[in-house]
Amino acid sequence: MSLATIMMLLVLQIITSLLFTATASSSPNGFTIDLIHRRSNSSRRLPYTDQLGGSPYANTVFDNTQYLMKLQIGTPPFEIEVVIDTGSEILWTQCLPCLNCYNQLAPMFDPSKSSTYKEKRCKKSDQSCPYELIYGDGSYSKGVFATDTVTIQSTSGKAFVMPEFTFGCGHNNSGTLSPNTSGIVGLDLGALSLTSQMGEKYYGVFSYCFSAKGSSKINFGDNAIVSGAGTVSTDLFMKTEKPGYYYLNLDAISVGANRIETLGTPFHASDGNMIIDSGSTYTHLPQGYCNQVKEAVESFVQADRVTVPDVQLLCYNSDSIEIFPVITMHFSGGADLVLERYNMYGVSRGVACMTLVCGDPTQLAIFGNRAQNNILVGYDPSSLLVSFKPTDCSALWS
């Protein structure tokens, strides 16, 4: 494979990593669920498990650069695999009849075969309620809001059933989604996200553990609490201008022993300066601060730099990521997350690159899913905490 081909693949991965940010959508009226915001220890037990007979969960699979969640929709249940996206709100899937759809290998959901499917009606017009989602790379999904039964598994052995679940039935979809996926499931703080529609008894608590091999699980409620030896927790922030996102506050990044503070840079904040996003592949930082991190890596690496026009990644002639320094993310509250080299670097046919993308100051900083690989990540909006626990994710539920 030529160097140009390798770099083109890397560029395509970057484009994919941008897919699940910067979304816009219309939504029906009347769906709000208030989250309970209170501080408490992240290892607490939630009080409702025995009453509900278990915690919901779903199986997940790795697909090139994204992680897919298996769930069922309709009556009888029809299985779909959708991208796990903490950076968006809506669950949508490609639906028949599909006027313009991307190539999907598995059969598409056919609403006419579900006895519980019902299109939503907009209150003002009493017509079908349309939606339009536009993503950062120009990909989009257009269709109608509908309700149907959504089913996932539960630790009790009994299925967790959500009747009249609001989702998007996509009849016009285009973009860079893999043929292995049926759509996207939004897990942000919005009222129509999967976690919100589960009900406030679950406090929006969920966790996942991503691995580039084998299958894994995403857990909700009591079974999703991340605690124990090795766990570090940081503050979760919410912002009114982008209310659905999970914001973290990055205080500094260490490149080996060289700690690079955000203090003194425009990137510095005390109320959240980056989002954690399972739908983005790479980690993104604003240009100025990002350049400081890259310069620190450059001063460490003893290898020949590879420069390719129009490609921003830091790359070297090497067949090993061991040439790179260890990266540590220092989040607020003393949460020092030491990353493995594969979290921040990749190698292909003699070219080793740092998988850090520098963006302009107007773009959101993103903690992407590659950096989260082999880390048990727990979201706890009720305690305003996100927790990380280094874990062999492929062996966690084997």
From TrEMBL:
It comes from Arabis alpina (Alpine rock-cress). It comes from the Eukaryota. GO terms for biological process: proteolysis. Belongs to the peptidase A1 family. PANTHER family: ASPARTIC PROTEINASE CDR1-LIKE PROTEIN-RELATED (PTHR47967:SF58), OS07G0603500 PROTEIN-RELATED (PTHR47967). Residues 1-26 form the signal peptide. InterPro entries: Aspartic_peptidase_AS, Pepsin-like_plant, PEPTIDASE_A1, Peptidase_aspartic_dom_sf, Plant_Aspart_Prot_A1, TAXi_C, TAXi_N. Its main location: secreted. It is found in: Secreted. One of its GO terms (molecular function) is aspartic-type endopeptidase activity. Keywords: Aspartyl protease, Glycoprotein, Hydrolase, Protease, Secreted, Signal. GO terms for cellular component: extracellular region. Residues 67-389 form the Peptidase A1 domain. This is Peptidase A1 domain-containing protein.
